[in-house]
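Support reply, case 0932

Customer input (verbatim):
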Amino acid sequence: MAKRPTLTSESGAPVEDNQHSQSAGVGGPLLLQDQHLVEKLAHFNRERIPERVVHARGSAAFGTLTMSADMSQYTRAKLFNGVGKSTDLVIRFSTVAGSRGAPEAVRDPRGFAMKFYTEDGNYDLVGNNTPIFFINDPLKFPDFIHSQKPDPFTHRQEPNNVWDFFSHSPEATHQFTILMGDRGIPSSYRHMNGFGSHTFTWENDKGDVVYVKYHFTTQQGIGFLTNEEAAVLAGQNPESHNVDLVEHIEAGDFPRWTLNVQIMPVADAAKYHFNPFDVTKVWHHGDYPLQEIGVVELNRNADNYFAEVEQLAFSPANFVPGIGPSPDKMLQGRLFGYGDAQRYRLGTNAHLLDVNAPKSAAANNYERDGFMVRGANGGRAANYEPNSFDTQPVETKKPLYGALASSGLSGSYPLDHYESNDFEQAGDLFRLQKPEAQDRLIATIADGLAQVTIPGVVERSIGNFAKADVEYGRRIEEEMAKIKK
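Our regenerated output:
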């Protein structure tokens, strides 16, 4: 039998006894000199880090993106160039509103955050399992999340707050129609689609720019839970979706998604019949068809949840050459918000953690010091720039992506809606659903609204749905009348 390794202290010294604390005699008080005891208790007190403000409950797995098409005509991003090109990645799936210990089988959007470890650095695509979002201006984001999180007084998610915010936010009608429908409770992380949601830019070697949207279509098929099924599963197995993902990957049943993109010429944006940068709306597939370009496969579980999932950090501002942002207001706000959240949660050196560090080469810059520095902290090299040392890094003077046009005076402006409105696509989605799916959607909305006690909220909410489709609003009103009898 192989000799087992020696247990050591944090400083590497061998530990004599890991079962008994040092004391002043057999029955005496414990001794402060017992460094092993002090270290264990002090570390235990500090094992938890602040949970994410949103998307606190999550699971992650590692795998690859393999390209089935060469997209070099549109982007110089290397991960999308060349048939057969393979890039390592990690995906974190998550719920939005619940805390780190909340059940997973609940009605909530799901995060679908991806980190691609490319040869030009990490590219983070921080999306959801829906192609749209509730709001289109980041100034409203804290208020929206507060309305979904536990109430300051009751410390639970309050229907009054959820529906009050919705009733004042007509642009959320489309997303609420998705959330309250069948896809609001996926049966597993494997059985849902993923989306970049926002509009991004691609730039090729010639400097030509296009707008792009990402779609990840599950090859396992869409699966959902009814309210009744979810309530049972959430009670029996709060970790249901994490268990499902881990067990299938361990068994070699690797989940896969087909990567499709929609591509819009830049010139089309100004003349499209609604604002293409409004994240509450989808681009019609008839106008910009899905183009299949690759396959994502997850084939490795995290060996240690804390190290590789809890410490996993994303920021949509992490671009690579050939990919950039668009004028999407929500995306522009997230470019700051996500990186700042990780600096608060993990510290200013979160990017040095193994799961977040680029695999292509170590980050090469002049940032030094701060909590949790890894490695030599730059050693004796200069920590300023410009400098006169030939071995020190210099800028490329080549932008990562094409410049965004701007015009007009600074000020606080509502999103330009062009010719569209906040209700058209919600109505289209309602009419697209099968009768039995409509029945479940109506019942879920009515059940939520029936719990509201704030005057005017129910009327405004039903009014939003009725503007999407008259029948939609009428049926919700009728279902509420049945509940109140």
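We compared this against your earlier run and they match. Two observations from our side: Residues 329-346 form the longest helix (18 residues). The radius of gyration is 25 Å. Please reopen the case if you see a mismatch on your end.
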